[in-house]
Input
Amino acid sequence: MQKREKENKQNSTNGQAVAVAKRSKFNKDKFRKFMLGTKEKQGFLKVFCIYALLICIGFIYVNPILHMISRSFMSLNDLLDSSVNWIPSAIDLSNYAQAAKSMDFWSSLGKSIIIAGVPTICNLISCSIIGYGLARFEFPGRGAVLGIILFTFILPSQITMISTYLLYTNMGILGTLWAFILPALFGMGINAPIFILIFWQFFRQVPKVLIEAAQIDGAGYLKSFFKISLPSAAPAIITVSLFSFVWYWNESYLTELYVSGVKVKTGWTSLVIQLDNFATNYSAYAQTATGGATRLNESINMAGTMLSVLPLMLMYFVLQRYFVESIDRTGITGE
Amino acid sequence: MSKKVSKEEKKNRKKVKPGRLAKREALVGIAFISPWIIGALMFLIYPLVMSFWYSLNNIRITPRGLMFRNVGIGNFTQILMADVKFPVTLADYVISTIASVPIIVVFALMIAIMLNQDVKGRGIFRLIFFLPVIIVSGPILGMLNDEGAGSVTAIDIQAITKAIEDTLPGSIAEPISSLFENMITILWYSGVQILIFLSSLQKIDRSMYEAAKIDGGSGWECFWKITLPTIKPMILLNCVYTIVFISNNDQNAIIELIKNSMFSGTQEKGYGYASAMAWLYSIVVLLIVGLFALAFVAQKDVYAKQVKKAKKARKKEQRELKRVGRRSARHAKKREREQAKQH
Output
């Protein structure tokens, strides 16, 4: 035992000596290897370049957001002062207070959550059922259905927008949340083709043997869907609900047209739409406000933008793992 | 007991008539997708047909309801001939889309390849590059662009735009220079694409690279001969996704134009006119998608090409060989005959 230890020690000291000798012999060849790398190891130069590029591009990428954050805290003096570039001299929260008041923040936030959340649930139900039907069963015309689904993804929504608008008017659901719920229930919501394809892809991976075994044990079609396929599709459910929520939240064009009204405003509104009409909203607010309302400036604009982005950003940072891994998990990229 | 019997009977029947189960499965499948069928009829086919019908009409809103007056293709000709804004905006849209789609896709591919290396803190970078997907929406982008936060401050944008405007004709220069002005927000569109590329890059078989390295292939060659052909379908997917995203985005001037003309009170505009606009716009979008798809589908695989070439060469060789064989046979016969004559 002791002998072995001794041997080990000797070996290690030997190794150290060799290493020292190697290190002291610093030559051109080794420098080249270090910089450009060998077959096994990446060179320093390459690694350095990758990090530098990634950090630079990453910074450029978040630059607008940083700009927005820093501007939103600036007082009017800081805005005009050319010596203040990034960091405000004092944190001014009045921008936020005014923007929030003019946007009617809390009620808009609640409505945004409803406008994004309810259709998301409908999307989830309809797309999972449709995706399962496409993945599990063979029936004539399945290929055609898939083709039409792909086609509807490419087709701009503007082409059906006007007639759908009139249809909703005739049905009397224009300006209510039903204008979003109804298409979502029938698999025609915003970006529903993507969600159907995600579920389709996912349910195809559920082994058919499993479902057949369940059927032999007496499970019907509905039971094998709810009890076997759906629980195994948890990643798809998470992905679809996150993306659907985000996309409904950020949709301002169709929300304004169908739900909140273009000319005659209904009660429905969302933060994004409030931001879209920020200038008019703010001037209306400034007229009614009893003193203290400053004129609309960049800081208030940025504070308003920040406020409408903030809920989703918070959600993103809490659930970021699911967002970032979502695309890996959905299997869009194939196996 | 009776249930059991009936089940057994069913099984027996299944054995006798093999099409039975398949038929029932097909029915159940159709039942599962029936929501989609109803939805497609109600929210796709019907609106499509109606919107085509509207586009052929002049529609006026009266107190008694909508007044239709058939104008044939009058709306279309008016849009293309007399409208001040639409053709120009459409041309701008086409140019800027065709220019920005490759930028976005190539940028996404670059970032994905860099992230695919052994990078520490990949999670943080992915977090950053995916962030815009969450917050990108028309009004927010508009706000940021208005405040000038959308351009790269470190680069002298004005010099670039001026150079572009000097070299290119005016109609092309304007959309492209506006592209540079809002460079960041355009790069912001690439969040989803980066992740799609990244996950497809990670699925490429490592052993292919190893084999190529053993054969002496450099990293550059590996990229062109292995990475690119493998992820080619993903490139097309990302192109299509980008086009769809750009054309549905609120920042797009045309869809705003369509909405405005939809609610404009003038006599010649209104629902019919806007429908015609939407049809024209959709056709253009589909054409652009088709263009990109064609560019990818038409290009055949390098290896397929080489195999074809080799086959051709081999066939030619065989033909040559046959010809030579025939000729030599003919010669031999001739000589034989001559020899026979001499004898």
